[in-house]
Amino acid sequence: MAYYRRIREMREDHDYTQTQVAEMLGMKQPQYFRYEQGYRDVPTDILIQLADLYHTSTDYLLGRTDNPNPYNK
Fold first, then answer.
1. What is the number of domains present in the chain?
2. Is residue 66 part of a domain?
3. 7-16 — which CB contacts under 8 Å span 24+ positions?
4. What is this structure's pTM?
5. pLDDT digits (tens, 9 = 90+) for 15-27
6. Domain range for residue 52?
7. Cβ–Cβ under 8 Å, residues 38 and 24
8. pLDDT band at residue 69 using 50, 70 and 90 as cut-offs
9. CB-based contacts of 32, cutoff 8 Å, min separation 6
10. Residues 58, 47: contact at Cβ < 8 Å?
11. Is 70 within a domain?
């Protein structure tokens, strides 16, 4: 699974809009939209903020693991 699909799924699972997530990340919605669509690569600092927001790991967001909760093995 492409990472941009996973960040969209995480947002939807948490019942956030793109506008809400963009505001939490300190950006405009069109910029966040580009990340979710895969038009732009997500910068490392934004990826870390997303992992913190969703209480998961960057590895999960990047598709390197299928365990969304790295603290529960």
1. 1
2. no
3. 7/35, 7/36, 7/42, 7/50, 7/61, 8/36, 10/50, 10/54, 10/56, 10/61, 11/36, 14/53, 14/54
4. 0.89
5. 999 999 999 999 9
6. 3-61
7. no
8. confident
9. 18, 21, 22, 25
10. yes
11. no
Q: Are the C-beta atoms of residues 61 and 21 closer than 8 Å to each other?
A: no
SS3 71: coil
φ/ψ (deg, to 5) at 67? -95, 105
Q: Is residue 45 part of a domain?
A: yes
Residue 14's domain is classified under what CATH number?
A: 1.10.260.40
What value, to the nearest 5°, has the Cα angle with vertex 48 and ends 60 and 26?
A: 130
Residue 36 lies in a domain: yes
Contacts 24+ apart (CB under 8 A), 60-67: 60/6, 61/3, 61/6, 61/7, 61/10, 62/3, 62/6, 63/1, 63/2, 63/3, 63/6
